[in-house]
Amino acid sequence: MSLPTNPPALSVVMPTYQDPQCLALTLRALTRQTLPPERFEVIVVRDGGSSDGYAEALAEGAGLRLRVLELAERKGRSVARNEGARRACAPLLVFLDADSWAVPDLLERHLAWHSVPGNAAVLIGRRDEIGLADLPAVLAGESHAVARAFPHGGDLRFATGLPDDGGEWLRAGWVIAYTHNISLTSAHFAQVGGYREAFGLSYGVEDVELFYRVDRSLPDGVNFGYDDDARVVHLPHHKNITRNWMEMKANFQQAARLYPCLEWEFLTAVMGYEAIRRILHYRALIDECVERSACAIGPAAARLAGQVRGHRTLWIGTGRADSGLPTSALTYDYAAPIGRTNFHLLGVAPPMPPGSLDAVISVDFWRYLLWPELCQFISASLLLAGEVHLVATADSTPGMCAADPQTLDYLRQAQAAACAAELRAVEGLGHVLILRPLRPAPGAARRVPAQTAARARPAALVPGRSTTRG
């Protein structure tokens, strides 16, 4: 059969590694698409490994504009997808995995989305898990019979298997922008440089990191769409779940070092939809803080001078420029541009090494934190420094906890089981809850200048632009 000479409207890029049984079913599903086969091409990238079973699997793609790229040795999914995208001829890229069995109108829906002016730049499609009870329906090509709800279905990215109706989560859609069913233009893909190949053979995060960069490269706003009917089914294949989770955690930590910002702080500990909820919650509070000029560092810096051990101090709040602090001072100030010594972090997973500071001082900002984040912030800060100062002024915004003496004393008692806690009244400022470890923090004896610690990870910071998107 001769291939058409007209250029395709979209290119499907699909890596495969030793899963020919999945690839065969996925290619068969692509031959049943409502989009005419001359309008799309399929690029399969075999990422090394054994060739057993692939001749039979590829035969299932008869009638497609199918190209197969063979990598001599395994390079990992990032390299395989980049290689496929480089060879793509269409202006639109649809990334599937070999285990992404597609419903008949999948490609038509991706193409239709990107044909509408004003639609978001990236379309995320649904991926249903499949229980063994539904495997016969998939083998028979009966997509209508495959369950869409637990226990034999549902998209595991969402707590209930379905996203919230409001669509607010799409403001941080990159957090769950997994590459098993997603599309964007080849121009956007090339603009950000494709997948980060440094992840190598390890499992996961390469797609989340890519679409974080895509989001940052686009104007502020909602850059992701979601189509619940643009659906694939995740085919069963062998997984080493324990190894995958360990590799994914390491990759999240690697990305957090590249991007020391609120979003990646959460992704080192909380994944998926819950991470999006936390990110959007704190984004709104931070915007409120900046808008009201709350959490002012200046008065605290003046009143606490001489009361803090050492000079290696991290200040958390706003108004760095008006605080009188030296330019080398380390801050988390959302009202100031990010840079070598100013990060946009909550402090629950700081990028500095243990024992590198003498004190961490949070001026009212800690009052925004939910209890789990506050506990995590205190624990992380006590590893960094010999003491933590939680400053509570008379200022307040609707998102802050109360700062009356009774509330603060309760918080002192609540922390007393884990650290030495002292509540002081400071004239002209308010109250300060001072926390110190019951035992010296690991590495506390080491003298590591704070500005040196901050310089250790500047490469991914873009001066003048916040890594937190509103």
Please count the helical segments. 14
Oligomer: single chain
The mean pLDDT is: 87
- Helix vs. strand class: alpha/beta
Our Rg estimate from Cα atoms comes to 26 Å
Strand and helix order: EHEHEHEEHEHEHHEHHHHEEEHEHEEH
DSSP strand count: 14
Taken as a percent bin, the fraction of beta residues is: 15-25%
Could you say which overall geometry the principal axes of the C-alpha atoms support?
elongated
Percent in helix? 25-40%
Output the strand order for the largest sheet: 3-2-1-4-7-6-8-5
The poorly predicted ranges are 444-470
Q: What separation lies between the terminal Cα atoms? A: 51 Å
Q: Could you give a short account of the major beta sheet?
A: 8 strands, mixed
Domain Glycosyltransferase 2-like: 11-127
Biased composition (Low complexity): 447-460
InterPro entries: Glyco_trans_2-like, Glycosyltransf_2, Nucleotide-diphossugar_trans
Pfam family, one: Glycos_transf_2
Structural descriptors:
470 residues; alpha/beta; eight-stranded mixed beta sheet; six-stranded mixed beta sheet; 19% strand; disordered C terminus
